[in-house]
């Protein structure tokens, strides 16, 4: 290690000073080895980037590395293509399984499609947050297997904001997965907002990107249908909601976020459902926000790191 | 209904004024019908009892009645045998499935036995609370299937307080259920404080009274062994503890109390266990306190009312 | 106390059997004495009313009585005027400070006015719950001191549902309290949904009924303006919201409900505000629902009983 | 930024492989500038250290830098004196206000003194955790201004573990601050476990190191004495406990940790106190554990960063 005098002789990093200073987010996942943070941060600093936030995680029992860095930089000095190239080089060097850099203020917003069924409390809540600017996404379309009258609040809202709404009446024999794939193929990820159809493994593989689901139960308890009724019948004193990535295994994908609320003998099935709906809205919104901020990373086969 | 003038002509209840005023707790469970609260409260009032607290619960969908009343009364005026007779009469009248009256300051404390294994955090916590006067029970004995050295904190504590300690080394072939039954037959209920043996249906039937267990998982998730590891492997973001009545079905009995805490990718199996232990202590202690205050009633086949 | 045989000889209460069976809620607050529960429940039973829920509370240190009873009855057998008369008689008999009976399915809904300012997240949340049938009130009008464009979501919603909206631009010199009084005089209670004007003691006295406010801070911390900033500057690790009755003392009235959420050094003032808004919506909605169900009673000078 | 081929030509960091691999924790606080993470991590990597965890925080509105890094290294390769020198050089280079490196498995444990008064639930809880190996400190002594009989559980425990216990009966005129200073001068920090005396500014300055206090109220509400009673009289629905650094301002120092629990009209002053005690134990223990893990840093004049 260099002494202070030696340090001062090093051509020191010059900070970003441009008027177009903005922040970038970089997430990285690779086999662990010595020097990853050093090289990532040296790359950023050499371009005048000022790191404001770093989260690094290496599990005790496994030589894998996860990081999320947020840095301030001047795109005039470190343009998009150079930014991406630099991180690609690092990704190659470290054999990274994942290396993503995003500049929220410059990059296009994440494009999502939202799938819903009859219960639309989660959909409505997402739309309200989106309208408030709290959900930094573009909503490509809303797909529903429940038929809504055209004068309902949701339909009106979507019309007013120019968001296409598609009614695809699923049946036992037809899940309309082809149509859905066509409608969503240019999205960055999917949100199942109490969408009550199971997407097949074929769909998931064809879509190829992340699908986030809100399950109205505290997984791994109460998988499948009517989790509120399952919970009610089980006599639990806490009910919950779970946001998770969708895999072929029903309600089995990696968990992102969970929330609970108390119930007692005084709760009816109806109040179980109402309390659950309140949790579902918050749980789904939080998970989506975290995901958009690149805080959510797949970890092992069925877990997540949520920075 | 009588008019105010008529009411005043009625010989009105005279309050308890004796120096020995104390409080009684009555719990009642019977098929629902009109007039139960009227008769229970009229009985109490006719004896000068002053009701301070009543909880009544009749589920929407089932004609069953549960109540818990706390009343101030003068034992000089309403002695124990009359108190019990009066409530017995009401119990017969309403075909009650359960009618219990307790006078905490006069009746003997509940007598319990505590069963433990190697992990003694719950046992130690109960003993400390008991010593502080926060656990209104008499501890008849502590039974363990783990061999503790005689100079450990727990053994010393039990010796100092004159609480017998029995080491019964269970094996696959011998659960010592006969010995345990003998040791605990005069107790009012049993507490399994992380006792890692399954009590057989035969034991439960022979014992015949309530057995309360702390399960270090959020039931119905993670039944059985190593729930912390099950939770860790499942990638949950919330872990919990559950206190429940023991039935023949492993970890399946009616739930009394549940508590949760957050976990994240940063938690190791060790911290899962530590967080769980913190929850278990609180969850078990709360359930036992509620039980001693007659707040916990069996409800349907697998639930509880906890007033 | 009568023996079972004596009990059976009593002309026993006959249950309500009419097809128009509905439920009534009665709350009662009077000086404590022996026999109140007996007389209340005997009154209900004598009319065939079946008590489904009772909460009684008499504080340890003060001879005051609070109860809330829910009972099923047949209005054909116990009509409105008799119902009210019977409870009035009991109220006179016991010198009750409060005796209210409501039959939610038959009585007119509570009529409320909602006052809001610029931040409308609470208003929007209430309107959505109201539309969903979760807020059992009639919204007489919405009054705002913030000027909203006519094409905003809120204004459209109110128009569509025929709810009058009044913009009263308050200034230092003019709070428009006279106009507000006129607009709200026929309401049952007022809801201040982040209404940023202080109602004067004169207004409160003239209005004479309950006013419920949501304060975006965990009282008694952070009274007054910008509680999120106050909390942010104070370096707290928990922020909260408080619903309370409004008195002349700013943010000093009896607390009804409080909720908290964690914050850390990573939270900015903006995220403090967002987390607070999420709490405010839930906290206000819960308090209003409890209030409509007659669960909230004034207790001592500055507290509440919330059954 | 170098291309992959250039990167591979760089003499790459060689990992620590010694059998004595252990982990080190480094915390750093300095004026923000570009390149701090780069230099810190490069230093660690150049010595074969493998970073397992990094937390970096730079507030949006202030150019100050905080980091906490955990790295695996081989003391045979990077001995203590070199370790400290290297970080000192970096501290000088960046004008750090704080730079601390600890090697928990090799360095002496933190030495603390615990001050208590009559209520000893926090003291007992800390002693139990310490005995369980959950509190990685050496307890230099326990000082109390409450006179305990020699056969109490606490005194026995301290005797058995060879921890000196000093009874210093404080009066209005004499806080024994000189004696306390002498007894604690070689400690690393102090823990006030419900110590009911206010330490003077002179004491704090003379001691010069951190003093951690548990306040049995949710600051900034209910400063000073009897916060449970203050909360009870205020009619709150949530009570809490706060751990904070002690400053001259009574209960005003930077907050480290806060926890809450619900209360209702049914709670008496006694149950307020009991619930509070349960919170105090957990809140204090968590804060001390975080502090020992170097997670707690002073931030601005009255806040903390808690990684």
From TrEMBL, chains A, B, C, D:
Which Gene Ontology terms describe the biological processes this protein takes part in? 'de novo' IMP biosynthetic process; one-carbon metabolic process
Any keyword Hydrolase? yes
Q: Which GO terms describe its molecular function?
A: formyltetrahydrofolate deformylase activity
Q: Which residues form the ACT domain?
A: 25-108
Give the matching SUPFAM superfamilies: ACT-like, Formyltransferase
What species does this protein belong to? Dioscorea zingiberensis
Protein name listed in UniProt? ACT domain-containing protein
Database matches in PROSITE patterns: ACT, GART
Query: Organism's domain of life?
Result: Eukaryota
């Amino acid at each position: 290690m260099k002494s202070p005098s030696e340090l001062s002789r090093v051509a020191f990093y010059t900070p970003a000073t441009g008027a177009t200073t903005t922040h970038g987010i970089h997430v990285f996942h690779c086999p662990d080895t010595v020097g990853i943070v050093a090289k990532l941060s040296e790359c950023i600093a050499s371009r005048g980037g000022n790191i404001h936030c770093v989260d690094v995680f290496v599990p005790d029992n496994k030589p894998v590395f996860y990081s999320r860095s947020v840095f301030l930089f001047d795109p005039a000095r470190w343009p998009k293509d150079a930014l991406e190239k630099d991180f690609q080089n690092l990704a190659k060097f470290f054999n990274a399984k994942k290396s993503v850099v995003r500049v929220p203020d410059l990059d296009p917003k994440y494009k999502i499609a939202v799938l819903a069924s009859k219960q639309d409390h989660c959909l409505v809540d997402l739309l309200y947050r989106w309208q408030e600017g709290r959900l930094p996404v573009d909503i490509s379309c809303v797909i529903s297997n429940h038929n809504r009258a055209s004068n309902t609040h949701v339909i009106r809202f979507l019309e007013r904001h120019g968001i296409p709404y598609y009614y695809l009446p699923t049946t036992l024999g037809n899940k309309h997965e082809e149509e859905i794939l066509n409608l969503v193929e240019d999205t960055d990820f999917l949100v199942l907002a109490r969408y009550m159809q199971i997407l097949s493994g074929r769909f998931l593989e064809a879509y190829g990107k992340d699908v986030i689901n809100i399950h109205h139960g505290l997984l791994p308890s109460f998988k499948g249908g009517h989790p509120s009724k399952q919970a009610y019948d089980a006599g639990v004193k806490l009910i919950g909601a779970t946001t998770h990535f969708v895999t072929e295994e029903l309600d089995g994908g990696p968990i992102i976020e969970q929330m609970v609320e108390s119930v007692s003998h005084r709760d009816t099935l109806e109040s179980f459902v109402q309390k659950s709906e309140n949790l579902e809205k918050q749980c789904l919104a939080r998970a989506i926000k975290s995901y958009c901020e690149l805080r959510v990373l797949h970890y092992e086969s069925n877990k997540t790191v949520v920075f």
